[in-house]
Each structure stands twice: as C-alpha cells, then as structure tokens.
Write a structure and sequence with these properties.
This protein is mainly α and 133 residues long. The two termini are 15 Å apart. It is elongated and about 60 Å long. It is built from five helices and no strands. Helix content is 76%, strand content 0%. The chain has helices at residues 6-25, 33-50, 58-84, 93-99, 104-132.
C-alpha cells in the first residue's frame, strides 16, 4: 500500500475526528453537525482514495474495492445527514419522515463495519505478503 505523507496523514486523522464529532454532535447540534461530518468525510475519503495498492494480490485488490464502496457510503451518509436536517427535497412531511429522516445512521453503520473489516483484513494480508518475500 502506498503510504501517505505527513500532510495527508494529518488530513486523514482530522477528517476521521471530524466525522466522529459530527456523528456525536448530531444529538446536540442537529443544524451544524451534518456539515461537520461532511467536511470530515470528504477529507477522510479523499486521503483513503489516494492510498493505492499496486501489487498483484487479488485479495487485497478486492478488499480495496470494498473499502472504496464504504468511502462512498460515508459520503452518502453526509448527504443523508444534510437532507435530514430540514426538508430540502420538497417532499411531503410524511414521505420525508419515512424515507429520509435519520436513515443516515443505518448507512453509517454499514460503512463503519465495512471499514473495520477491510482495515483489519488488509493489514493481515499485507503481513502475509511481507513474510513471503
């Protein structure tokens, strides 16, 4: 895996912290929390997309694709949080409450589980690959 430089690592870490802060702040500050989460998600996912794997290991390539799907889900979470903070879609209130309101939590949970799984599996596969060489 391609390593990030110091600035990219800082953006990656700050993005992760902003995502956590935005998700927690949704309980206390529902107007601003989606934007906090969105900025964090953009920083986190963009830096994670910069990490490339140029090897031939099929398992790591597959795990990277799953990780990129979870990155898209994190960005979708930010969109759903922003859509859930009001009714910008112009829907009727009953449709809005049943389709959009707080569904970002489910998408965030799926993205977090995928991130955790792929991170652990990629690190173990990289260790196996290093032992072979």
């Amino acid at each position: 895996m391609q390593q990030l430089n110091r600035l990219q690592t800082a953006i990656f870490a700050i993005g992760a912290l902003l995502m956590v802060a935005g998700a927690v702040a949704a309980l206390f500050w529902p107007q601003g929390a989606p934007y906090l989460f969105a900025v964090g998600a953009m920083g986190y996912t963009s830096m994670q997309m910069l990490q490339r794997y140029d090897g031939n290991n099929f398992i790591i390539r597959r795990l990277r694709r799953i990780m990129l799907i979870s990155d898209v889900l994190l960005l979708l979470t930010a969109v759903l949080m922003i859509a859930g903070s009001g009714n910008p879609l112009g829907m009727g209130w009953i449709s809005y409450l049943s389709l959009v309101r707080n569904n970002w939590v489910v998408v965030l949970l799926i993205a977090a589980v995928l991130q955790l799984y792929t991170t652990l599996r990629i690190s173990s596969e990289l260790e196996k690959e290093a032992k072979k060489c």
